[in-house]
Specification:
- α2 crosses α3 and α9 crosses α15.
- The chain starts with a strand and ends with a helix.
- The chain folds into 2 domains: 208 residues, Rossmann fold (3-Layer(aba) Sandwich), CATH 3.40.50.2000; 159 residues, Rossmann fold, CATH 3.40.50.
- It is built from 20 helices and 12 strands.
- The chain is globular.
- α10 links the parallel β8 and β9.
């Protein structure tokens, strides 16, 4: 048995986790089923403080960390083998916030990523595209080095693909309504306006968006645009609903006949693997979506959706009307079989069984003088008032 500490950057106590939170809940479940002792730290569950990080790290054999909490972890925790989960390419997603928040977000993200690459022992990502992206970054950080390459030419001991997964059982699908369409939460790299205008062209269809459970963690600009677009056009077929609690999301998804996802192409779409793709297929929902390499491959392989290469609402409307629900549901069932969490997390399970510190990071890793996140205007004002 290994003692494992999980450090999750998102709240878990409210029962409505988003992608990162879902992943950590499932990591905890799978590792417990493997017989390990698991301690989870999250902002609202055994809070993430210098004291809790030090205490947990002193009483555990290995840590799994994701996102910006890695900075606090490496500052305060004892040195134990550490897995950095890079499945969510936050530094790329957050490039969308430059116009709204300036350079500070990128500077903080860049420091976090480089700090994690230099100090982590093993890394997880979600796809082959992500793996190549992060290998380039690991090379720049000195973590991909000749000694490691000589020992492990495929670098599987450094970084492994561990995509999102789905629960063991597919939920019931008895209550689906024809042409009730689910979009889900709106992040600023999505295009909800095209989705709304597409569904407006489909007779007797509805479109449902969900409010993010942690709005304080991500800007809500596109959500505001979507709500204003609906109000201005008087679109009564559009609904904005609460995020479904994790244990009840199967019943929520069962209301819908298919899912629609629209977004512009960018580096973000080349690297991201949409959490909702996995959840929707778990529930047997055919998917109509904009093109993104990872999603395209899944939908083509399992014949469970339609990829639309254009950004015209009419193209999406036509695709919605072409959905073969029976065939695509069978494809979703095959996807569910192949993407059980215990399979997708196999590299993490193997590392946890035999945790190790990567010795080459001490001899090859670059430790540049990366500035801490620059102080915000509010931080500077607080310091001035204390002076």
């Amino acid at each position: 048995m290994t003692r494992v500490m999980l450090v999750c950057p998102e709240p878990l106590g409210h029962g409505q986790p988003a992608g990162v939170g879902i992943r950590f809940l499932e990591i905890a479940r799978v590792l417990r089923e493997d017989g390990h002792d698991v301690t989870t730290l999250a902002p609202d569950v055994v809070g993430i403080t210098p004291e809790s990080l030090l205490d947990a790290s002193q009483n555990n054999d290995v840590a799994v960390v994701q996102g910006h909490v890695a900075n606090a972890f490496f500052q305060h925790a004892a040195a134990i083998p550490t897995v950095i989960d890079l499945y969510d390419p936050f530094i790329i997603e957050n490039l969308h916030y430059y116009a709204e928040r300036g350079a500070e977000v990128f500077q903080h993200d860049h420091f976090t990523l480089m700090n994690s690459l230099v100090r982590g022992d093993f890394f997880l990502c979600a796809s082959e595209a992500q793996r190549m992206f992060y290998l380039g970054a690991l090379l720049a950080a000195g973590r991909l080095n000749p000694e490691l390459f000589e020992r492990d030419p495929e670098l599987s001991s450094l970084i492994a693909i561990a995509p999102f997964g789905v629960p063991p059982r597919q939920p019931p699908t008895a209550n689906r309504q024809p042409l009730d369409i689910l979009f889900g939460g709106i992040y600023d790299w999505y295009d909800p306006i095209t989705a709304i205008d597409a569904v407006a062209l489909v007779p007797n269809a509805t479109l449902t968006f969900t409010h993010h459970p942690n709005p304080e963690l991500t800007p809500q600009g596109k959500l505001a645009e979507a709500m204003e677009h609906v109000r201005k056009n008087g679109y009564e077929f559009v609904r904005f609903e609460s995020w479904a609690p994790y244990e009840q999301r199967a019943q929520f998804f069962a209301r819908f006949s298919l899912a629609l996802i629209t977004f512009p192409r960018s580096l973000e779409t080349d690297l991201s693997m949409r959490t909702r793709i996995y959840d929707y297929l778990w529930c047997g929902l055919p998917i109509v979506t904009s093109s993104a390499p990872g999603t395209d491959e899944i939908l083509a392989r399992y014949e469970c959706g339609i990829v639309v290469d254009e950004d015209r609402p009419r193209a999406f409307a036509d695709a919605i009307l072409r959905v073969d629900r029976e065939q695509m549901t069978r494809g979703a069932e095959r996807f569910v079989h192949d993407h059980q969490w215990d399979r997708t997390l196999a590299p993490l399970r193997a590392f946890v069984r035999e945790p190790r510190s990567e010795r080459t990071k001490e001899t090859f890793a670059m430790r540049p003088s990366i500035p801490e996140r620059p102080a915000s205007i509010l931080d500077r004002l607080k310091r001035r008032l204390r002076a």
